[in-house]
Model the fold of this input.
Amino acid sequence: MKKNKTKLILAILFSLIFSKTLIAEIIILSGCDSKKDGFLKNEYILDLNKLIMTRNYVYNQKTFERYKITDLSIKKENSLTRFIYTDNEKILTDKIGYPQFYTQLLFEKNNPIIRIKTVINNEEGISTISNCKKIENFQKES
Done:
């Protein structure tokens, strides 16, 4: 009888511990402008649970034609996916480039400004590349 009670108590504790709802945070930055390019749509979706950033964008005609001249593979509408990680309140994309030279996108929670971090031979530079008109935070329960 004691074994059954112990098993029952352990089963209840186990189910309580592992049946908690998981909360995932998703941040959507939309209406993002650029100092260099023109867009009809430019949004960043940061999934902090899956640690993935997805960028969806559509070039305006002028920007599309400018890039099409030098790169025939360019598309007017595209989507990019990058791995991300968090460092306190900062969110960084994976490093693109070689160890001596790399770039990363830099986001901050509840901040509509997107920056790029450039590192050349351990010298770091950060500059603003975009300012978003709308920032939304979602808590997704599963």
Summary: The chain is about 20% helix and 55% strand. The first helix runs from residue 2 to 18.
